[in-house]
Write a structure and sequence with these properties.
The chain is α+β, with helices and mostly antiparallel strands. It contains two helices and five strands, in the order E-E-E-E-H-E-H. The protein has helices at residues 50-59, 102-106; strands spanning 3-4, 7-8, 23-28, 33-37, 62-67.
Length: 114
């Protein structure tokens, strides 16, 4: 977690020298889902630390934010060409409505369904 209950993860250091591609997802105070990914190329002169990336989500009013990294930092939104030097992967992220009681909503009970 980047941010949990409004607080940046305590292991993240504001003086960190670990600056890399980052991506993550947060939920703002209105329930809006916010995705963020670092830019590459000429537009980006310095990548963020985990602390700096967490501060971005705080500035967007997210009380909770999750770091999605792994090799996903190679993911690109609307790429103009082939992505170089990355793992061949496809990320799938789904946003669904919260179902308070899926068993009750389905009309089934746990007793009737082994």
């Amino acid at each position: 977690m980047l941010i949990q209950n409004g607080k940046i993860h305590p292991k993240f250091n504001s003086d960190s020298k670990n600056h890399k591609h980052r991506n993550g997802v947060g939920i703002d105070k209105d329930g809006k889902v916010i995705f963020a990914i670092t830019e590459t190329g000429d537009k980006q002169n310095k990548f963020p630390s985990l602390y700096e990336f967490s501060k971005l989500f705080q500035s967007l009013n997210c009380d909770n934010a999750l770091f999605l990294d792994g090799d996903l930092s190679m993911m690109v939104v609307n790429p103009e060409g082939k992505i170089k030097d990355g793992n061949p992967l496809g990320a799938i992220i789904a946003i669904t409505e919260k179902n308070e009681d899926p068993v009750k909503e389905s009309g089934r009970s746990l007793e009737n369904n082994p």
